[in-house]
Amino acid sequence: MTSLLIAIDGPAASGKGTLARRLADYYHLPHLDTGLTYRAVAWDLLRNGQSLDDEASAIEAGRHVDLSNLDKHALSAHGVGEAASRVAVIPELRRILVDKQRDFARQPGGAVLDGRDIGTVVAPEADVKLYITASPEVRAQRRLRDIEGRGGSADVSEILADIRRRDERDMGRADSPLKPAADAHLLDTSDMSIEAAFRAARAIVDGML
Ligand code: C5P
């Protein structure tokens, strides 16, 4: 196969981001974390003191999102993911960001994109679709370890409540809800190490080549 497009979807803290990066490295493909595009919009509104419900400003911010200049550090800040899921319900904003994501997906040679609607909306033509899940409890524990690993502290029950709220919003919205594409391979990583999940994902991709 001269070109390989891999679509990865899944809920918050499922491990899809880590898997996407590892697969992109392994297959020498460019990678786009599409969550960063929604985070960039939310961050723009927060930074300028604008409301997350201000659709016109969110749409304007969406037009200015530059895929080659996404500040991963600022965008990973606490609260930005939650804010991103609030602006991500705006259909006109989604259309603008999805267009940019599709341009990225169309590069010669292929790409790896991860998000919530890659296999269903952004790149339904993808060669391989993975849907990564893990139980909310396991995802909360992983997020806690991440935070602690960076020297922070947090309450696991608050993280769990956050994760459940985000799942509900992402799976329940009318436009492009989070769900596996009909032809996605499901990978439940609840009882898997990152290494084991990576091996399983690679086996699925290799099986499609
Ligand atoms: O993946 P991440 O947690 O960074 O995404 C932040 C939020 O952006 C998600 O909770 C979701 O609401 C939104 N998002 C989306 N579609 C994508 C990627 C992210 O709606 N493809």
TrEMBL record:
Keyword terms, alphabetized: ATP-binding, Cytoplasm, Kinase, Nucleotide-binding, Transferase
InterPro entries the UniProt entry points to: Cytidylate_kin (IPR003136), Cytidylate_kinase_dom (IPR011994), P-loop_NTPase (IPR027417)
Listed GO biological process terms: pyrimidine nucleotide metabolic process
Residue sites binding ATP per the record: G10, P11, A12, A13, S14, G15, K16, G17, T18
Reaction(s) catalysed (UniProt annotation): dCMP + ATP = dCDP + ADP; CMP + ATP = CDP + ADP
Subcellular location, record wording: Cytoplasm
Residue stretches making up the Cytidylate kinase domain: 6-196
Gene Ontology MF terms in the entry: ATP binding; CMP kinase activity; dCMP kinase activity
GO cellular component: cytoplasm
Tagged with keyword Nucleotide-binding: yes
EC number: 2.7.4.25
Top class in the EC scheme: transferase
HAMAP family: Cytidyl_kinase_type1 (MF_00238)
The family this protein is said to belong to: Belongs to the cytidylate kinase family. Type 1 subfamily.
NCBIfam families xrefs: cmk (TIGR00017)
Name this protein carries in UniProt: Cytidylate kinase
Species this protein is from: Mesorhizobium australicum
